[in-house]
Amino acid sequence: MVEDLQTDWYDSSFLSCLGCRVLVVGAGGIGCELLKNLVLTGFTNIDIIDLDTIDVSNLNRQFLFRREHVGKPKVEVAVDAVKAVAPEAKVLAHHDSVLSSKYDVDFFQQFTVVLSALDNREARIHVNRLCLAARVPLIESGSSGYLGQVNVIVRDQTECYECLPKSEQKSYPGCTIRNTPSEPIHCIVWAKHLFNQLFGQPDAEDEVSPDMNDEENKYHFAAEETVESGLENRNYQANGDHYFATDNSYALCTSESTRQWAENNNFDPVLLFTKFFHDDILYLLSMSNLWRERRKPTPLIWDSLPDQNPSASRSKSANDLWTVLDCRQQFEDALNILGKRVRDGSVLVWDKDDDAALRFVTACANIRAHAFHIPMKSLFDIKSMAGNIIPAIATTNAIVAGMIVIEALKVVFDRLPALRNIFITRLPNPRGKVLVDQVPNKPNPNCYVCSNRREIVLKTNVNLTTVNALEIKFLKTVLHMVAPDVIISGTGVLVISSEQGETNAVGELTLENVGIINGCVLECDDFLQKLELRIRIVESNQLKSDEFDIVNDSAQMDQESEEKAVKRASNLYAEDLLAKRVRNTIGDQN
């Protein structure tokens, strides 16, 4: 195919430049288009990394895959497909996670340019840092429905991926989810929590039933409330940690989890329905203060559901609304399927592409929405909202992939001043453009990843927060470090190590107990990402255990307080900490 192109510029000299080594990260919607574009353009030395396998839901937009490929690694199938088009190309598949330690700075330095077709933030941040450390240009990309963008990242010349803050996933107060939902998304979040309580890894903060331990919820039902709520035929006890509906054969208390109770009752759909959509709502109705300015919810009865919905249709496509009776049937069917999967004690993870899991969440969200007089949603809408995604559009992915190759060619031919960020808009701008280009911004001087600043100020409660929390919840979760080493500046005391087991002895100690106090500076080094960072600690008694708050302006800190903190940490804590580490080492040797 390449030989058929007869142009003055597309000659042997041009093609020889395309023999440079290129890395593609991601073989999904954009990645498939990108890999195809690269080999058709003439690139002949390509590596591609992806961990995923092919799911049936990928087939409508990831065109290199067919039904017979379902379950196979994406990279392997994609490479086989493009080799059929360009057999002369050397395309190497890596069925692996780009987060693996084998893909380090040395690995990235082998490439002329890295092309990112990733779909999650953690991996994007990791690739961004490795490309900066390796000084290899990175072309970042993404799409969201009709919108798409391509960003070029060159060390010391452009903004990096982390120069600008990214919007965080929106969270909702637990009391709103459990007690007073007012929007469809509240019901969807509640349904996902219910899935985790029944089949997944439960989180105490994601409990779906009213909080019986909340002091505001503990009281005896007034007679008028009992009559108004329809409780006159039920025998309730609301006392401390216990809550019983004695004529419904279930009991929930602190000693029994929701899953244990469901398993003990063989995941009985009628019993579960009655508990979550009738009895829990009756309990909520007893909290009269909740409903002074809100419309009261309606407890639902298994045998008395309406088989109609003003917006429902007779067809049952993903875009159609179900009736409440449809939801009950879907709830029962999905519950039977999911219940069988966890008979052996398995733990499920909710996946929008798991049909039974999706139908369970859709049914539960809509039943709860009906009870709280909230508009119901179609399966398609709930899949989008519950998965925190906007459905992908193949055409947008194709445009993004084309723009990536255009910018990659500029890198290969050393035309860096011509690099542009590209934005794909849904509607033409005033100049009639759908593709809008922009000269990349300069690096953000306050970016702790690519600037010379490399320092952040961190507020935390050093009396309550543990070393393990600092490592897992802040360094690895918030800062997305992979293998951090942390020492207290001025003392040389190592409190967090990338070597497994080296600092286990101090993991459960509070920060104060290991010498991390107000004004203290931590020297953090992630050897895998080649990222060095100083963290200046500010004590905050207003924060709870394991809570962190980043303060942007480090200039506000007093240098003298740092020196005092270092001295105090050295005198009061360092010797004790080192002694504990020695004892731990001896114990390991024994």
UniProtKB/TrEMBL annotation:
Recall the GO molecular function terms of this protein's record: ATP binding; metal ion binding; SUMO activating enzyme activity; transferase activity
Pfam families listed in its UniProt record: ThiF, UAE_UbL
Q: Where Zn(2+) is bound, by residue? A: C160, C163, C447, C450
Alphabetical GO CC annotations of the entry are:
cytoplasm; SUMO activating enzyme complex
Q: Where in the cell is it found?
A: Nucleus
PANTHER family, per this entry? Answer: SUMO-ACTIVATING ENZYME SUBUNIT 2, UBIQUITIN-ACTIVATING ENZYME E1
Q: What is this protein called?
A: SUMO-activating enzyme subunit
